[in-house]
Design goal:
The protein has 18 helices and 12 strands. The protein has a 5-stranded antiparallel beta sheet. Strands 10-9-11-12 form a 4-stranded parallel beta sheet. It is elongated, with a radius of gyration of 27 Å. It is an alpha/beta fold. α3 crosses α4 and α11 packs parallel to α16. The protein folds into 3 domains: about 100 residues, Zinc finger, CHC2-typedomain (DNA Primase, Chain A, Alpha-Beta Complex); about 220 residues, no CATH class; about 35 residues, no CATH class. Bound molecules: zinc ion.
Length: about 400
Amino acid sequence: MNRIDELTIDKVRDAAGIVDVVSDFVQLRRSGKEYEGLCPFHGDKNLGSFKVSPAKNIVTCFSCQESWDPVGFVMKAEGLTFPDAIRWLAKKYGIFIDEEQNRFKPKPSKPKKELPIPPDLPPRLWSIDMVTKRLNTDSDLFVSWVYSLGWRLEQRQRIENVLHNFLVGHSAIICKRGEHTERHDFTIFWQIDEQMQVHNGHLMKYHANGHRVKEKEQYPQTWIHSRMKYSDFSKTGIRQFNEYTERASFCLFGLHQLSIPGSENATINIVESEKTAILASIAWGNPRKHLWMACCGIGNLTNRNDMLRPLIKMGRRIVLYPDRDGVEKWKAVVKQIGYQHLDINTDFVEKYWLECDGEKADVADVMLRMIQHPETVGRKPTPKMPEHIKQLMNENPLVQVLIDKLDLVAE
Ligand SMILES: [Zn+2]
């Protein structure tokens, strides 16, 4: 065995940060001054026993009753001897080990543990059971928020049906945090295709006011495929870029609505967020005329623009409804795809947007204001008002009422 000189070993020990090293194997999240994750060595299911301390540069598992420094952790996780763990870390941190000063040739590097996934495997899909087991939304904050909105009667009567059509789901995960347990509730927006094959699920946490819990406060896995990968890893302790990632598949949220009887000629309206697709379906209903779907993130139409492919194949008429910050990007998508039945509608964010909606308002915000305050719908957009009328409006609020009542056009 080659000897690595003490100076190099010290260099590697100085360079290796415990959070950085453990993150290569375990998904960590911040908890005060420490980080926590699921221990890869004992089939951990709950947060709380596996703590990483950047200050001490060690990780401790209270269930395994062991602590490891970066070198020790790499030895355990990769099944390496001490010198090989030093080599592993040296490579990670770009530290040169002069093996030539020894008389022996360096050992050939170990073959990788995992087999690569053949590229021609079909995408990973789940059966519809995955969805039907999670349809109980009694304690779901998003669902109760939707019911709490000021809908008109005919809209209210549609809510149950719409939520059922989209197969909105719910999942609760109980985490152990030291003494007490913590409950994480997620609304699940499934991505199901027209053959009822489940491609993925988007997990989101909501506040009671319908706003999303901010990313950093979220439980780390927001997609079903990464959740599955994570749970496999905590069972086996083997890090592998497994099929859940390699074969992860995505499709439009609501694509399966194509099977709704009578919707064969409906226009497909595509918005960015699942929330908007649901609100729009409740607000306007009538799946014979239009079906609302979501691409679940502004980048997904550009990066995964095969999301539209099934619709284009069927020759469906598609209209995109971008958020304000997505107008230019989605206009470029329309141009790039060059499909004759693909249009973009920017009215929601350009024509119907009012200053009271706020700079950051998206389609859902504008739509919600129109639903809750229908009296604002006919109002012409403030920015396009001529200056002298704006001034009149400031001096006398009745001018606004007049403009609304008489439907005056501000040219
Ligand atoms: Zn453990």
